[in-house]
Amino acid sequence: MSFDQRRLAELADHDAFLKRHNGPNADDTAAMLGTLGMKSMASLIEQTIPSDIRLGRELALDEPRSEAEALDYLARLARQNRVVKNHIGQGYYGTHLPAVIQRNVLENPGWYTAYTPYQPEISQGRLEGLLNFQQVIMDLTGMDLANASLLDEATAAAEAMALCKRANKKSRSSAFFVAENVFPQTLDVVKTRAEFFGFSIIVGPAEALVDHDVFGALLQYPGNSGEIGDLAPLLKKATDNHIMTCVAADLLSLVILKEPGALGADIVVGNSQRFGVPMGFGGPHAAFFATSDKLKRSIPGRIIGVSKDSRGKTALRMAMQTREQHIRREKATSNICTAQALLANIAGFYATYHGAEGLKKIAHRTHRLTTILAEGLKQSGIELAHDSWFDTLRLTAVDSGKIHGRAMTHEINLRYFDNGDVGISLDETTTAHDVTMLFEVVLGDEHTLSVAVLDDAVMAQGTSGIPEACRRESQFLTHPTFQRYHSETEMLRYLKRLENKDLSLAHAMIPLGSCTMKLNATSEMIPISWPAFSQLHPFAPRDQVAGYQQMIDELAAFLTEITGYDHISMQPNSGAQGEYAGLVAIRRYQAAQGEAHRNVCLIPSSAHGTNPASAAMVQMEVVVVECDQDGNIDLNDLRNKAEKHSESLSAIMLTYPSTHGVFESSVREACSIVHKHGGQVYIDGANMNAQVGLSRPGDFGGDVSHLNLHKTFCIPHGGGGPGMGPIGVKAHLAPFVSNHVVTPIEGVNPDSGAVSATAFGSASILPISWAYIKMMGARGLREATELAILNANYVAKRLEEYYPVLYKGDNGTVAHECIIDIRPLKATSGISEEDIAKRLMDYGFHAPTMSFPVPGTLMIEPTESESRYEIDRFCNAMIAIRQEIESVENGQWPADNNPLVNAPHTQADLVEEWNRPYSRELGAFPSEAVKLGKYWPSVNRVDNVFGDRQLICSCPSIEEYRS
Ligand SMILES: *Cc1c(COP(=O)(O)O)cnc(C)c1O
C-alpha cells in the first residue's frame, strides 16, 4: 500500500465494518488465545491448517469499503439497471408486495435470520406460515397435499418428472412427454434433468400426448402464449393409458380457472412469485409442488405437518423429518435441502392478507383488463393467436419491429417470439392507463380506442377469455386464517405473533454446525428492496440490466480469487443444486473427452446427504470411502477403491474441511489419487467459512466446488431458504456449466442446458454477498475466518472437560466447528442429544446440529460473528446442562422426570400444578441471562411419531390451535 493509499484508508475508516461483523475484539481474541494456550492467531492457524495448502498471501481484493460507501457504490450500479413497465410474462409478473409484509417479514431479521425449522418447539411461527402456504397451494390447485416450496417452477417440473417415473409402476417407458406450450425455460431444465436420468423427452402438441408410450407428461395451464385448453379429457385419456400427469399452473389464474386437481392431474407445480414476491431478476421465489394423496410419501421437499406436543396440544413440525434431514443418500430420488421458505411464507401471507375475496378481485381485474386489451386489438384488426386467455395475449401477423420501437419509446417491455409474434402479459400492477399505453404501442397513436368504452362492452356482454369448461366453481381459502387478517392492524399483529414464537439470530447465537449462521448485516440486506434490483424481469433486454451484470461479474471475480477457480457459474439456487450442476459439468466434460462411461463417484462415509443424492441424480454409482478412527478419510481405502474403479472413476466428492470439523492433512494426496485415475475432484464448499483467505480449494486439487452463499457469504437462511449455490470450476470445465435457453451466457457451450429457471438463479440476493466481500476486504475476510476457527477451538476447549470432543486435527485443534459426543453420557444417564437440544431452549439457545454427521452427537459452529460474551453464555449453558445430567446419573432426579426430558418448559408448565423434583425456576429460568430476558418456546416437546403416522398437512381448525 502506498503512503497515499494508507492515508486514504485511514481517513475512510475502512476497518469499520469488519469490527461490526466480527464478534470478538482484540482483547477478547487475546484472552481466548490464552485459554487455548496459543501465543498468537498465526500459531493457531499454523497448527490447524496444513502448511501445504495454506495460501500464504492476502487475497487480491480491492480495499474494503465502509457500509456507506458500499451502499453508495451499489446504488450507482443499481442506477445502471432500468426499471420499465414489464409485460413480458413467461412465468414472471409484476405484483404488489403489501408494505406490512415487506417491512415485517422480508425486511425483518426476526423472520429472515431464522433457521430451517428442524427444532419445531422454537419454530411454530414460521411453521404456521408455511402451513398456510401449503393450504393456499392445495386450495388453488385442488390437490390433496402440497409441500413447503421448491427452488423454482422449472426444477419443480423436473422433480415432477422424476416422481412420475418413480410412482408409475404401470409403465415401462423411459420417455417423458412435454407439451410444446410449456415455458421454454422449464423445458430447458427438464431436458437437462432427463438427460442425466437417462430419460428421453418427447415434445409435441398437448393433444398428441396419448400417441406416445411415455411414463409421464408435463402440460401447462394456461399455456406458454396464454391459451387455456380444457385439460380434463386429455388428462383422463392419459390416466387411462397409464401415463402420469403433471400440470404446471399459474397460481393467480387458478383463482378463476378450474383447478387442475378437478381436471384430473396427478401433480401440479408452479411459481408463487406473483403472490407478492418481487421478480428480482429471476428470484428468489417459492415454487410449489402439489400432489394427490396417493403420492404423499414420495413428494420431494419439506412438508409441514400437524402433530401434538407432550401436553396434547396441537403443534406443527416438518413431517417425515428423518427422511428429510438424513436425505436418503445414494438411494435418494431428490437432493433438495435449502428451499424457499421465506418466500413461501411471504406468498402465504399475501394470500392470508387478501383472502379469497381479495385474490378474486386481483385475478378478475387482471383478466378484465386483458379482455379489454384483447377486444380493442381485435376491433382494430389485430389477430390473436388464441381465442382464450387469462392475462396473456399472443399477437400474430403483426409488425413486431414497429411495435418494438414504440414499446421502447414508452419504456415498455413486451415478449417477442422468434416467429415475429408479440406477447403481452398483464398482472396485478397493470392499470387502465397501462392498457391505453399498450394500445398505443401496438396500434400507433392514431387509434381511437377507449378503455372505458371497451370496458362497458366487455361488462355488458360478459366477455371473457376463459372457456366455459375451464371456469372455477369451487371455493378456496375458506379456512378462518384466511378471513381474519384483512385489516393492516390485524395482519401486523398476526405477523408479530408468529415472529414472537420463533427463535432467530435476533435472540441468540444459533450454533449449527455446517450451517454457518453468521451475521446478516443490515447494510447487506438493504439493497434487495431497491426497485432497481427487485423489479427487474429475468428476461428483460440485456441493455436494461447492465448494473446487475456488473455486480454479478464483480461478485464472480471476487469468488474466483477467493476459491482459486477460473470461472464461476452463478446459476444454482442452493448448495445441493450447485452439487448437481457441478456433477453435470463433470459428466459433460468427460463425455466430450470420449469418457462418458466414467460413472463411479467416490464419497466418504461422513459426507452430507446431498452429496450421494446429487451423484444419484446424474446416474453415478456411489462408492463409499471409509473414514479412519480419527474421522479422516482412510487413504488406503481411497487408494484401493480408486484403483479398483480406475476405468470407470468419474469423481470424488469431498467436503473440506471435513464434515467432522477437521482440516485433513492428506487432502492434496486424496485429490491427486483421484486425478491419477482420471477422476475429477468435487470439493463441497459448504465449509468455506474455514478457508476464505487462508486456503483455496482450486489450489489444492479441486476441479469444481459449490459455495453456499447463504452460509459463508451472509445471505440469511430465511427459515429454510432462499440460498445461492454458485459453482467455481477450473478452466477445462467452464464450457460445460449451465447455459440458459432464453438468456444465453457468454463462454458456455450453447448446448449445455440449464439447471435453474433463470440464468443467474436468485439474482436479487447476490448484492448481499457482494456487499459482504466489498465491506470486509481481503484482510477482513481472512480475519473472519481466523476468528471462526478461534471461536470453534475456544468452544471445544471450554466444553471438552464436560463432553468429549470427537475429532481433532493432527495438532489437537478443530476447524470452524466441533463435534461433541453425547453417546457416553446417554449410556450412563439415558439423556440423549435431543434432550440436550430441547433443554438449550430453556436457556434461550437454538440447538447445535443434531446427529450429523455422526449419530448421537452435537456439532457446534459458532462463526466469527459471535462475541466472546455470547459464546461464554452458550458454553455456560452447556456446562450447566452437563451438571444437570450428572444429577440424573447419580439418581437425584429420576430418568423420566427431570429438567432435561421435560424440556422445553413453557408458560403452560408453570401455571399448572407442579409435581416435579426440581423447582419451577430451575425449569424455566435456569440461568441469570434468561432471567434478564426470557424467550418462551410456545409449545412443549413435539411428538415426532404421531405427526408421521397420521400425516396432516393442512391448516387445523382455529379451535385446535386454542385447545
Ligand atoms: C448445507 C450443506 C449442503 C447443502 O446445501 P443447501 O444449500 O442446503 O442445498 C451440502 N453439503 C454440506 C456439507 C452442507 O453443510
Would you kindly provide a brief summary of this structure?
With 963 residues, the chain is α/β, with parallel strands linked by helices.
Bound molecules: pyridoxal-5'-phosphate
Low-confidence stretches: none
CATH architecture of one domain: 3-Layer(aba) Sandwich
Q: Looking at this structure, what is the CATH superfamily of one domain?
A: Type I PLP-dependent aspartate aminotransferase-like (Major domain)
Specify Rg, calculated over alpha carbons.
28 Å
The amount of beta strand, in percent, is: 5-15%
Strand count, sense and barrel status of the largest sheet are:
7 strands, mixed
GO molecular function, one term: glycine dehydrogenase (decarboxylating) activity
EC number: 1.4.4.2
Protein name: Glycine dehydrogenase (decarboxylating)
InterPro entries: GcvP (IPR003437), GDC-P_C (IPR049316), GDC-P_N (IPR049315), GDC_P (IPR020581), PyrdxlP-dep_Trfase (IPR015424), PyrdxlP-dep_Trfase_major (IPR015421), PyrdxlP-dep_Trfase_small (IPR015422)
Characterize the structure shown:
The protein is of the alpha/beta class and 963 residues long. Among the domains are: 116-351, 3-Layer(aba) Sandwich (Aspartate Aminotransferase, domain 2); 784-948, Aspartate Aminotransferase, domain 1 (Alpha-Beta Complex), CATH 3.90.1150. Helix content is 40%, strand content 11%. The protein contains 35 helices and 25 strands. The strands form six sheets. A seven-stranded mixed beta sheet has the order 2-8-7-6-5-3-4, with helices on both faces. A seven-stranded mixed beta sheet has the order 16-22-21-20-19-17-18, with helices on both faces. α22 runs parallel beside α27. The mean pLDDT is 95. It binds pyridoxal-5'-phosphate. The site of pyridoxal-5'-phosphate has 15 residues, from α23. Residues 784-905 form the Glycine dehydrogenase C-terminal domain. The modification N6-(pyridoxal phosphate)lysine is found at residue 711. It catalyses: N(6)-[(R)-lipoyl]-L-lysyl-[glycine-cleavage complex H protein] + glycine + H(+) = N(6)-[(R)-S(8)-aminomethyldihydrolipoyl]-L-lysyl-[glycine-cleavage complex H protein] + CO2.
